[in-house]
Write a structure and sequence with these properties.
CATH class of the largest domain: Mainly Beta
Largest sheet: 22 strands, antiparallel, barrel
CATH topology of the largest domain: Maltoporin, Chain A
Mean pLDDT: 84
Radius of gyration: 29 Å
CATH architecture of the largest domain: Beta Barrel
Number of strands: 48
Distance between the termini: 59 Å
Oligomer: single chain
Number of helices: 5
Strand content: over 45%
Helix content: under 10%
């Protein structure tokens, strides 16, 4: 009997031991999706495949973000953390020893910003008032480029020129004072002071971050009015993701995109390619080949490699953009031949950037951005034989080649001292720009700006944050100002947030403004090597009040701003130069204007289940003062308004969106013998979209109508004295008329 009992116990021990030794030692590493930092305190539950309701084990991650378990595969793992979305995943491979799961902050999944921050954080925690247009917002607008994405936003105004493209202004400060970046690398190639928004494609963009007001401490020149930072798509969860997208718009727009992303472990490689073709559009046909909106063909491609783990993230990316825009001339009939004089504008935008983020154990990080941005523009006038279709370049004054090269290096070290409740940030911002143009003095000019900046983030209490900052720069062409800023943020629970700030912004004279020498039979425009930087004082105040009851959420957001810009650079009428053609007025760039803009806006947002809506209104006062006349001031009060409403039809799973904006009457300043002004009348725009996904999100269909109010050109008064007039037939160009579009996305993810 005893031998029998011993045998039974021995068999039981052998079976138990076999079961135990068959189990895997599994480690779960939980990290933050954006920063890559390990997350202690995450609650991890483990479930068997047979019972996904009752956990077989649970654990809490340690300081290093790890949780351990011994269990057989397959296994279901659920990870939860306060303030983050819960993750549920299934693992079937027996030989897995370590699994990494990343969590995204709850609420708006894309509501995480990096522009101007110590580390990636939510918009609620930022001392800046950051506006985020995430991928869902871009999709709901049917936006193809940055011009489409920003078209309905309050405080952002756009202008269009048939040659120089779409420009922008924020809080009354024009495009020269707005910095546009991709992953922190500035875009170069401004024409007439602006970057063409229609050349900035969104097919690989995850979100657009907009900061109103100066960020000159961190980003230097051209950031006086604000910063727009386009963030490309980052590390994804799927191992494979491929897509193709087609877009058609009734105005004659045909787009095709394709892309693929592959991830293996900590490595990811992604690439995208696209071709966009626009056939041209005119509200009024002056002649058969005429297009007020010039026909254009665009090609773009990009490639990006990313490595990411719990401590660091590294990426290197390259992109190329090509656009051919044509201005077709009127046909001339000579004997049996038909010919026309055409203008070709060929543009290339190459870009390379690398980013490196390393998280140290002591809540500090090193963030390095390095990049190159190029711009090549060839302007050729050709005689086209419309019989044989051959082309011959005409020796003409209207030929030009412009090239820009900009190199950027921005290393930033950020740290936080828990005992003192103070954070510090130290950084360098080095930019070198070189340009070659036929109409520049000596053809080639260059400029270098090297700056150091420091800021302190002081948590006076857990709800009150004070952030002063200072920048000192050396410039090879002129004396740069010392740039201070101060931001204050106060929270009361989750109900009330108050932000206020003061910042000194500046804009360095461009190489064109310094060295332009453009003289022909119709022009006499000169640069000015004695130009000083524009300097601007900015004060902002904004508040957020959030009211919640059950499933209802109301947000009230009033804000106000004040800008005072001195030494404003513009063209000034000068005495005729000796080498100017007879009857041609001579102009020179000069610091002779002072500009003041101030105003306020109020926005109400409402969310309930599948419904979200908002309405906003803005008043902006513009004042321009000519320092040379000492008494002349031009004032203009402009009202704007916008509204958005979105609703998800539950059973049909159709998302409906309506966007409305009223752009008020605007002043247009002209150069005659004195400072004068004209006006562009106000106008309304309405866009409507409907979208639905099919087959587990593998197919996405979006239909919509743009500019349903049918606005094309608006009336303009007293603007004939302007050097560059964006108007066509009937006034200033605004839009391409009422159009309808369809967008179809086919994708596969694994």
């Amino acid at each position: 009997m005893k031998k029998c009992c011993r045998l039974v116990w021995a068999l039981f021990f052998i079976v138990s031991s076999t079961s135990i030794f068959a189990q895997n030692d599994l480690s779960i590493l939980v990290i933050d999706e954006v920063t890559g930092a390990p997350m202690p305190g995450a609650f991890v539950c483990f479930y068997s495949m047979q019972d996904a309701k009752n956990p077989i084990a649970s654990s809490i991650t340690h300081k290093n973000g790890l949780a351990n378990i011994q269990h057989n595969m397959p296994l279901i793992v659920k990870v939860a953390h306060l303030g983050y979305e819960t993750v549920l995943d299934t693992f079937k491979t027996e030989n897995k020893k370590k699994i990494t799961l990343s969590l995204v902050e709850s609420g708006n999944l894309n509501d995480v910003v990096i522009t101007g921050q110590y580390a990636p954080s939510s918009t609620a925690n930022s001392v800046y008032d950051v506006k985020v247009l995430n991928s869902e917002t871009i999709k709901s607008k049917g936006a193809v480029n940055l011009r489409d994405a920003l078209s309905n936003e309050l405080n952002i105004s756009q202008s269009t020129d048939p040659v120089f493209g779409s420009g922008i202004s924020i809080n009354g400060i024009s495009g020269e004072g707005v910095k546009i970046m991709v992953d922190g690398v500035p875009l170069t190639g401004r024409l007439e002071g602006k970057i063409d928004l229609s050349q900035i494609n969104l097919n690989n963009i995850e979100r657009v971050e907009v900061v109103e007001g100066p960020l000159s401490v961190m980003y230097g020149t051209d950031a006086m009015g604000g910063v727009i930072n386009l963030i490309t798509k980052s590390f994804q969860k799927e191992k494979i993701h491929v897509f193709t997208k087609g877009y058609y718009e009734t105005v004659g727009q045909y787009n095709i995109d394709a892309g693929a992303t592959f991830r293996k472990g900590n490595h990811q490689l992604s690439g995208n390619f696209g071709r966009y073709f626009f056939d041209g559009y005119s509200n009024v046909k002056t002649y058969e080949r005429y297009s007020e909106w010039r026909p254009k063909e665009q090609y773009m491609g990009d490639l990006k490699y990313t490595f990411s783990n719990s401590k660091m993230r590294f990426s290197i990316a390259g992109s190329i953009f090509r656009e051919l825009m044509m201005n077709r001339g009127e046909p001339k009939y000579v004997a049996d031949r038909v010919s026309a004089k055409d203008e070709h504008f060929l543009t290339y935008r190459p870009m390379v950037n690398a980013t490196f983020l390393y998280n140290f154990k002591n809540k500090s990080n090193l963030d390095i951005v390095a990049g190159y941005s190029g711009f090549f523009r060839f302007w050729n006038t050709v005689m086209k034989d419309l019989t044989s279709m051959s082309e011959t370049i005409i020796p003409s004054e209207m030929q030009d080649t412009s090239t820009y090269h900009q190199f950027t290096l921005r290393p930033i070290y950020s740290m936080y001292t828990k005992s003192l409740k103070v954070g510090f940030q130290f950084g360098l911002d080095i930019n070198h720009e070189r340009t070659t143009q036929l109409r520049l003095a000596n053809r080639t000019q260059q400029i270098t700006d090297a700056a150091a900046f420091v800021s302190m983030k002081w948590y006076i209490t857990k709800d009150l944050v004070l952030q002063p900052a200072l920048r000192y720069a050396y410039n090879t062409r002129f004396l740069s100002p010392v740039v201070p800023s101060l931001n204050i943020k106060y929270n009361y629970r989750d109900i009330f947030t108050l932000r206020t700030s003061y910042g000194l912004g500046y804009r360095a004279p461009s190489l064109k403004e310094l060295y332009l020498n453009f003289k022909d039979s119709n022009h006499d425009i000169s640069g000015n090597e004695s130009l000083k930087p524009e300097t601007g004082h900015n004060v902002q105040l904004s508040a957020n009040v959030v009211l919640r009851k059950d499933e209802h959420r109301i947000e009230l957001k009033p804000s106000a701003f004040f800008n005072y810009i001195n030494n404003k650079i513009d063209l000034k009428v000068m005495p005729p130069s000796p080498d100017a053609a007879p009857g041609v007025v001579s102009y020179r760039y000069d610091n002779f204007k002072r500009v003041v803009t101030y105003g306020g806006d109020f926005t109400i947002s409402y969310n309930w289940k599948r419904l979200n809506a908002s309405v906003g209104a803005l008043l902006t006062e513009f004042e321009t003062f000519d320092n040379s006349l000492k008494e002349q001031t031009i004032k203009n009060l402009s009202p704007d308004a916008n509204a958005k409403i979105g609703y998800l039809i539950p059973k049909a799973e159709i998302s409906l969106n309506v966007f409305y904006k009223y752009t008020g009457r605007r002043a247009v300043f002209s150069m005659n013998s004195s400072l004068s002004t004209g006006y562009v009348e106000g106008f309304h725009t309405i866009d409507v979209t409907a979208s639905r996904s099919f087959w587990k999100d593998r197919i996405q269909l979006t239909l919509g109508g743009k500019n349903l109010a049918g606005v094309t050109n608006v009336n303009a008064q007293n603007v004939s004295g302007a050097i560059h007039n964006s108007g066509g037939s009937g006034g200033f160009m605004i839009n391409r008329g009422r159009t309808f579009f369809v967008s179809l996305v086919l994708q596969y993810a694994k």
